[in-house]
Design goal:
Layout (H helix, E strand, L loop, with lengths): L6 E5 L3 H12 L3 E5 L6 H8 L4 E4 L1 H7 L2 E4 L6 H8 L8 E4 L24 H8 L4 E4 L20 E6 L2 H13 L3 E4 L6 H18 L12
Parallel strand pairs: 1-2, 1-4, 2-3, 4-5, 5-6, 7-8
Antiparallel strand pairs: 6-7
């Protein structure tokens, strides 16, 4: 980050979008929260908290952001990109936080996904915005722990993947600035492995109402 302030566009005004947006705002960046309806009460309230906060449509937000975060529901991700217009994302780093969660109840704590094993929503997102540099990250933990999580065992690991090396380095900087250790899993095909981490993360929550954990990769 190096103290340089950026314009951050957040596509999606739910919990994840608002939490990550606040994290960027706290670092001095100007943040636009994008929504189908920028006049929704939760969007207006979020914007009202800070002078560095704006609201807009998906299209306005994609145009505004130098760095863009996709934080919609998984089942709305491709439609959000269509509304944002892929041309507005061309050449930009897009952090894809989404997971392909189906609109169906979990089975013994296991979420139902819309994707098969040899495909991923991350790959679909990259295909929907072919000229964007999509990086999958922040999909393997709940919103409450995304910014500066504190654990006795040290910083947790944020897994990421994407096809563009420079975009991944940029996202690694964001990950570190939010108090995580980044771990690069390769190209966007690795979303096939990263997205099920959401399932794994949710099992203690859905079975025991434990939502405060995070993953850590031990390397030595």
């Amino acid at each position: 980050q190096g103290g340089d302030t950026m314009k951050i566009g957040i596509l999606g005004s739910g919990n994840v979008g608002r939490v990550l947006g606040a994290g960027f705002r706290d670092q001095g960046h100007t943040v636009m929260l994008g929504s189908r309806d920028p006049n929704k009460p939760e969007v207006r309230q979020w914007v009202g908290q800070d002078s560095g906060a704006l609201a807009g449509t998906f299209e306005q937000t994609a145009q505004f952001g130098e760095l863009v975060v996709l934080a919609t529901l998984g089942r709305a991700a491709e439609q959000a990109i269509a509304l944002a217009r892929p041309a507005n994302l061309a050449g930009k780093t897009v952090i894809d936080t989404t997971n392909p969660i189906a609109d169906a109840p979990p089975v013994d704590g296991v979420l139902v996904f819309t994707t098969g094993r040899n495909e991923s929503l991350g790959e679909r997102v990259q295909a929907a915005a072919p000229e964007a540099h999509v990086v999958k990250a922040f999909n393997s933990v709940g919103a409450a722990r995304m910014i500066h999580p504190k654990y006795e065992q040290g910083p947790p690991t944020m897994f990421l993947c994407g096809n563009d090396a420079a975009a991944k380095r940029q996202v690694e900087g964001v990950i570190r600035s939010f108090g995580w250790e980044p771990f690069d899993c390769g190209g966007m095909i690795a979303s096939r492995a990263l997205e099920p981490l959401c399932m794994l993360w949710c099992i203690p929550g859905l079975r025991q109402n434990q939502w405060t954990h995070a993953f850590k990769l031990l390397t030595k």
